[in-house]
Amino acid sequence: MKFVFRMAVREMRSSIGRLLFFFLCIAIGVASMVALRSMIQSVSAALLQESKTLTAADVLIWTERPFSENALYIIDEKLERHGAMATTQSIETTTMARPDDDESQVATMIELRAVEEAFPYYGTMELRGGRPYEHSLLRNRGAVVRPELLTRLDVDVGDTIRIGDASFTIRDVIVREAGRSLSMFTMGPRVFIDYADVESTGLYDFGSRLRWQILVRVDGDEVQELVWDLEGALANEFVRVRSFRDAGDRLARRLDRGESYLSLAGFVILILGGVGVWSVIRVFIAQKLKSIAILKCLGATTRQVLLIYACQVFFLSVVGSALGLLIAQVAVSLIPSGLGFDLKDVEYGLTTSAVVQGVGVGLLVSALFSLIPLLHVRLVRPLWLLRPEGNLSPSTKRRRIDRAQIVAGAVLVVALVGLAVWQAGSLRIGWYVCATFVAVAVALHLAGVGLVKVVSPLARKAYFPLRHAVLNVSRPGNQTRVVLLAVGLGCCFVLAVRNIQSNLLEQFAIELRDDAPDMFFIDIQPDQAATLEGRARRLGAETVKLVPVLRARVVGVAGAAVQLDDYEAVREQGSLGREYTITYRNHLEDNERILDGAFWDGAHSSDPEVSIESSLRDRYQIDVGDRMTFDIMGRRIVAKVTSIRDVEWSDARNGGFMFVFRPGGLEDVPNTYAGFIKGPRDPMERARFQRDLVADYYNISIVDLRDVLDALAQVVDKVSLAISVVGSVALLSGAMILLGSVAMTKYQRRYETAIFRTLGASRRRVATMMLLEYGTLGAIAGIIGAVGGGVLAFLLSNRILEVPFRPELVSNLAAVLIAALAVSLVGVAVTLDVVRQKPLAILRVG
Predict the structure, then answer these.
(1) Is 557 exposed, middle or buried (0-12, 13-18, 19+ CB in 10 A)?
(2) C-alpha to C-alpha distance for 313 and 454, rounded to whole angstroms
(3) How does pLDDT run across 75-125, given as a tens digit for each residue?
(4) Most CB atoms within 10 A, among 250, 269, 409, 640?
(5) H or E stretch covering 240
(6) What is the pLDDT of residues 726-740, one digit of tens each?
(7) Inter-CA distances, 694 with 190, 211, 532, 773, Å
(8) Helices marked H in 375-460 — which ranges?
(9) Residue 51: which H helix or E strand, with range?
């Protein structure tokens, strides 16, 4: 081993320039993986730390109707059984507030929360100016409000506001609250009042959507058992239960799509680094054949020679990983604290698991991709010094199948599957990525074999550059396989990341279209619809759309593939038994398309027909021709499924429904209307618009989405920037690695280029020869890589990220042209670098 280490140090010292590219490949890959995963893990950890603050309790029990006596009895019994330490009640609703002044013409949507004295169990209520929160601020019709309310209504502390039938005095301004909504956005400024004052508002009488809540404090060991016990006992009481852990998990799941993309990008960069490592080691070993033969002549065993180069690979991998950690630390330190998340105490830094995973994967990838080229050391015999081509001739390769390399290739594929699963946290992602890797590698190999056969007749052409370009492609020890694999695999993964990035950004653009409605009306009575629509148009609404809506449950299915005879059988199917919002109409919206069956024409029909969303067929095997039984407002309706629709849920202009009925069968069923409106942009005009609309209709609630859309636009800008940056890093890193891999081939072209120059070939002829050779290889690799990248992007977009896939044909075509041009230019550039040297100097060294 002393001999091995001494020789490894000497080899690295003499070849450090050539091996510099090796650890740069590893450094880029490790830095990407560690930085991206550390960022996600830091945010996820902060979310879990705040999970109790988000619910303000250990367990939250809530319902959208008053708790029944039976439900309260069950809750009391379960809480006592599991040793609940304390409970407090709360009521939430969305309603309107306005200054308590008849001359005021402004109003705004608020999120009202009525709480008891014990609220909150966890978290703090921070008031403006540092004043401590006390429940006494809410007694005798007091209120604490968010600062946005003061601006919208032009009021201040000490003024009174009107909520329903009651007036409330603003006692203070709350700047940070506990138990806030789990959504990233709120429908309006939060207002806190005393639980005892809710009845005085009269909101019970006007059909407001109230949410009654019981907040529970319980020992941590009993939390999950209590939740399971309550869920089972309250299944038929329309009461829902969650723990603080659920709250944290729900927020964490919002990061899944971004984490999947970022993890994929990091892993792709590392795979590209592995391709670069393979290229470097292959060229390095090819240049060291004479040294290896000399070592074997002097008595060195094959095992010792392998260990010499394996030690170099390990050392450079460690150095590259260390450099990658340094780059990742710098990158993470530049991330603004709390970027894009309303979280406190988010400390971005390198996490232990991300470091271990990044370094581990980096070392494994470098070892795996180095394994196959290192095995060529076994084939070098001492006879190589006298007959260099003898022991590596094509005839020898045909006679002997190198089982070790076949096993190494299989180990590489299996290991890549495991690494992809470990990195992305999904077996499907692992299989998709590695299956694409193998398929593209095989396609590139076959393309190389086919290219040799196709161009062989051109070797007899008189044109010197063409003749020798063909000979370079087909001769022993050629660069065809190296360039095709490096460029083809690189294009595949870079274009896959680019296509996924494009689809994600397009999805965000759809969600924020300019013509999307920014107000949502609910609980509009049928006799109010026409008047409200006319009033909205007179007040300046850009668009007004009213849709009839009803609430329904599936209570039976009679189909070819599924038979559900009653509601209990439906409930066993999971979410199929939940309550749905349904509608009826005689047309498709712009965000819908028919996948199967036929949508009805404009005529009404008394025979019920229903069109279902495609996911219902995928999950429950409900298909065209099946009959479904619905409970709609207490009425049983049996409808035939006549079509399957695909709904673009992210297109907010038209909303979406799981079930759409044919007109003619539901008009006589009691229903309400929902309205989609795009109103004035100016805040004051908008407030007056809302006030005038609801002046006579206390039953109607208006959800103002303007603030939501503005906030969403800001977040989308940040997310889009992050996706664009990551995609650009992947693209740039991949391009650097691929072009570097091509550039490394110059060490194998030095000797032959010197011979061409000695025999009188001009620089133009040598450059043209290289341009033809590398341009052809780059174009073929680009085409195969683009096809493979498109397939991988389709699988990951649809199956993992759940984003509609739209092929980037123009981008892929441009990528093929760029690949051909870039590879050609790099091939020519590195050749000219050799041409500038004296041929004699190269021949002496060679």
Answers:
(1) buried
(2) 38
(3) 898 888 888 888 899 988 888 888 888 777 777 778 889 999 988 888 778
(4) 269
(5) strand 239-243
(6) 556 555 655 665 555
(7) 20, 22, 9, 74
(8) 394-399, 403-424, 427-455
(9) helix 51-55
